[in-house]
Amino acid sequence: MDPIDVAIDLAGLDDLLTDDERDIRTAVRTMAQARIAPHVAGWFERGAVDDPRGLTRELGALGVLGMHLTGYGCAGTSATQYGLTCLELEAVDSGVRSLVSVQGSLAMYALWRHATEETRQEWLPRMATGEAIGCFGLTEPDHGSDPAAMRTSARRSGGDWVLNGRKTWITNGSIADVAVIWARTDEGIRGFAVPTSAPGFAAHDIGHKMSLRASVTSELLLDDVRLPAGAVFPEVRGLAGPLSCLNEARFGIVWGAMGAARDSLATALRYSLSREQFGRPVAGFQLTQQKLADMQLEYTKGVLLALHLARRKDAGTLRPAQVSLGKLNNVRQALEICRTARTILGASGISLEYPVIRHMDNLESVLTYEGTVEMHTLVIGKAMTGLDAFR
């Protein structure tokens, strides 16, 4: 084992994992480091992923797309195994983990839990292999944290549904084959499986991003998109549908953020041991060791929290407020670890020759999406006090 990995697992967290969990982690790490890590800095710099559909098929072949779901070609792994996968993918890049999270925990999970059996059979097997790509349309230009105020609408027209509206900041949007769209109806908010080939559907990439640049982010336009009756999710009404999906994705972020933190910590430790100033390694100075120790503490606590929440999820006892606790803490602390690591690297910390500035930039988006700091703070506050402070 790499001595740096041994140093970072100072608390012996590996001992808390089963052999199967370590095996999946190793398989994902091996693929990610061999097939993605050598290219991701270039993708980030160019703001485009080379052959995103090919990458998705490779991830499908690895078995990580919808891996925590059962049936339809999905692996049916534990929540802990899925969490470890997210950690290893985000140790390479948050954008790659986002691709997998949106595919599996948003689009596939929405179809798996809420769609008709016919729709599941049509899409899920192909999405599990990466042959088909999905996206999840909830956020709108004027309604991010308040999805109940969405303007996208769906109305009945004979036996069909007709959708109109806009969605924005949609990961995978312009490369997706199917979009899960949430819209207002006379019966409340409902979900729809929308083939992106449907007349009236369009997706345009969002440019000028300075974060998550190795990820496809799009705006979706729906102009009288006509769908058959079977496209609607038959049972779920209101925000319970999209929020159930967001909870799945947030769980992956709890783990993923620690991947970015680990990679930044490992980079800072390795750099500090090799970089000499005043005739000695930077790692030998007290202030540097304080930074390393503080990063180690927060990383260790973050992984322990993620593992605790995963065990609860596997036991069926995980509550949404507990996911908010994990998402708020782990992303915030991961971002601080990256910022501290950058100071250890000095000027090299802003270069894409090292991953730290890329992780730091990406986490600025992760801090905001799937619920802002403010929203998760209020979720936790409500769980503690019983008082709703959202409005």
Automatic annotation (TrEMBL):
Acyl-CoA dehydrogenase/oxidase N-terminal domain ranges (all copies): 18-131
Presence of the UniProt keyword Nucleotide-binding in the record: no
Boundaries of every Acyl-CoA dehydrogenase/oxidase C-terminal domain copy: 238-384
Domain Acyl-CoA oxidase/dehydrogenase middle: residue ranges: 135-225
Matches recorded under Pfam families: Acyl-CoA_dh_1 (PF00441), Acyl-CoA_dh_M (PF02770), Acyl-CoA_dh_N (PF02771)
Family, per entry: Belongs to the acyl-CoA dehydrogenase family.
Signal peptide range in chain numbering: none
Superkingdom of source: Bacteria
Alphabetical UniProt keywords: FAD, Flavoprotein, Oxidoreductase, Transit peptide
Name of this chain's protein: Acyl-CoA dehydrogenase family protein
Keyword S-adenosyl-L-methionine: no
Record InterPro entries: Acyl-CoA_Oxase/DH_mid-dom, Acyl-CoA_Oxase/DH_mid-dom_sf, AcylCo_DH-like_C, AcylCo_DH/oxidase_C, AcylCoA_DH/ox_N, AcylCoA_DH/ox_N_sf, AcylCoA_DH/oxidase_NM_dom_sf, Glutaryl-CoA_DH_mitochondrial
Cofactor: FAD
